[in-house]
Amino acid sequence: MLDRGLQSGKSLEAFAAQQVPFVCRLKEKRKYELRSNLLGEDQQTDLGEGVLLSDELVRL
């Protein structure tokens, strides 16, 4: 799992090349291609202290 502290495209590409799964939040202006929406219609989005807005598989 990653957070905004790691934004280098080269680092993210290296993880993908090594088939290392990762989750990260991106800067708002980062370009990406949506591959699939993973948020199901019946999926719980109220997480108590937060709300799940999206769950997507993307290509950076």
Q: How does this structure look, described?
A:
The chain is of the alpha+beta class and 60 residues long. It is 15% helix and 15% strand. It is built from 1 helix and 2 strands; from the N terminus they run αββ. It has a two-stranded antiparallel ribbon.
Rg is 13 Å
Mean pLDDT: 81
Give the helix proportion (percent range): 10-25%
Overall geometric form: elongated
Question: What percentage of the residues does DSSP assign to strands (E)?
Answer: 15-25%
Main beta-sheet annotation: 2 strands, antiparallel
Number of helices: 1
Largest beta sheet: what is the strand line-up?
Answer: 1-2
Low-pLDDT ranges:
none
> What's the helix-strand series?
HEE
Structural class determined from secondary elements = alpha+beta
**How far is the N terminus from the C terminus?**
16 Å
Total number of β-strand segments? 2
Features:
2 strands, 15% helix, elongated, single chain, alpha+beta, 60 residues, two-stranded antiparallel ribbon, 15% strand
Question: Concise description?
Answer:
This protein has 60 residues and is an alpha+beta fold.
Task: Draw up the topology in text.
Blueprint: H1 9-17, E1 33-37, E2 56-59
Antiparallel strand pairs: 1-2
